[in-house]
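Protocol step 4 of 6: structure prediction from sequence.
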Amino acid sequence: MATTSYPLLQTINDPADVRKLSRADLKVLATELRGFVLESVSQTGGHLSSNLGTVELTVALHHVFNTPEDRLVWDVGHQTYPHKILTGRRDRMHTLRQLGGISGFPQRAESPYDTFGTAHSSTSISAALGMAMAAKRKGEDRYAVAIIGDGAMTAGMAFEALNNGGVTDANLLVILNDNDMSISPPVGALNRYLAQLMSGQFYAAAKNVGKTVLRPVPPLLELAKRFEQQAKGMVVPATLFEKFGFNYIGPIDGHDLDSLIPTLENIKGLKGPQFLHVVTKKGQGYKLAEADPVAYHGPGKFDPAVGLVKSTAAPKQTFTQVFGQWLCDMAAQDGRLVGITPAMREGSGMVEFEKRFPDRYYDVGIAEQHAVTFAAGMACEGVKPVVAIYSTFLQRAYDQLIHDVALQNLPVVFALDRAGLVGADGATHAGAYDIPFVRCIPNMSMACPADERECRQLLSTAFEQDHPVAVRYPRGSGAGVAPLASLEGLPFGKGEIRRERLATDDLAAPRVAILAFGTLLYPALQAAESLNATVVNMRWAKPLDVDLLLQVASQHDALVTVEEGAIMGGAGSAVTEALNVAGITLPVLQLGLPDVFIEHGDPAKLLALQGLDADGIQQAITRRFFTTAEG
């Protein structure tokens, strides 16, 4: 990437260089940084709106605080591109979210300035408080700063941390980056409160009167403080955050360095828990992103001069779209259905459902635990909830899945989007663990559709059941098998033989059957052609089709299980357990995701590196069974 347009930014190799700049130069730096972010993301794809909105805040934080000695913890973390650029990674931004490149989120192994790895929401205050208390325990004089958005602030964990932090004397600063937008529009009483507080310009003006009028007269500084308290009490009696024990400051303009820097400098001189409310705009400085921050939340490559252009080619239907259409169709057929999302309306494909069935659509905010128990409560009353949630985010509600849904055997459908590897978002978002953590729970079932058609069918099957069922499907599109228009399901807990092994005269060749769970059925079918192997589309990780399994086991010398999920405790483990119960001793090769966190990169390349493409499956089977037979 050519950087000739960013002369000042090119001189910044770490935050120490930022701290040397004058206020005027900092404004120039912010302008160049915003331009560099826009140019960089347009060439790699990635998160854009959120990063354009945090440019001045990032510059101000690194100018005022002695990073990395002072700790910055960025909540969620997809707004940290300016932070990465200023902390020595400018020349690696062209590798962003690519295999072997830098992560799209803070990552401790990547830089000492990434003090805490984030990607899931609402963790920053807890982590920063832990750092602040550790510093106090060790006798170290430094600040810990948590930067959290208004959407992330709605989650219970954020309030748990505030509740704890407000009764400590930790040098903790919580910065509420209030841009009035999470990925989906923020919802709930807290957001309404923040909007009212923010719009109360008299409060902000009244608070500043004391400082403006009395600052030139040093003996009256104490009077200024008293006036501020009186103004605060008159206009916003006992703000929420002060009740938690924090010293509340703001709201201030998060794009105005002349406000940000003096405020942060003053806060740095204070002791104890502080709360700074800054107001920013997503997409700031790029009109197209300002106008449509959702579209520019995570765009692919594009021309900044033109903006996002819709392709004229007919794209393959994604699994998310299949789910969204199924949800609308099933809702039209069954009035009991309701759709629930924890702030992922767009990502989970529920935009059309909200339009058509607004009184049956529930966005509960970034609150996965609440979403699951909320669904359980509705199910108790005869409603049929469908919880649309990413596989990685259901991890956050595991106790509720067990205690509130499964233990009471409530008929909740979990539509698990982003199952398996997710590509550029990397390990934090990978849906690698849902089969193991679901199949070990009594009363729970897990369906693994092989393609778009089966996804729609198995969602219908799940909805028909009177117990909790999860349906897992990957990001993007699959084999391109068009769904049927009907809402008929497939037999519950039953698989099918998709390819029969051909009889041969080669008695030495092992008879191998590949048992595929999910979309890896198709590379398994390709591998089977050269191996002359049987291929079984298992469809269900739980209940396992034991009758079909035992039938196949009796006719083959070896079995291979294939799944885009963790091998440990996964569907392959279910197969070996069933064989053990039946007293059958048969070699089983389990192919899936290994016991490591897999980095970001192109999904197809990542699968190939794990040996889960057609060539990898063929080679693994050949090494295990055919080489021995030939040798």
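Step 5 (inspection) to follow. Residues 319-472 form a domain with the Rossmann fold fold (CATH 3.40.50.970).
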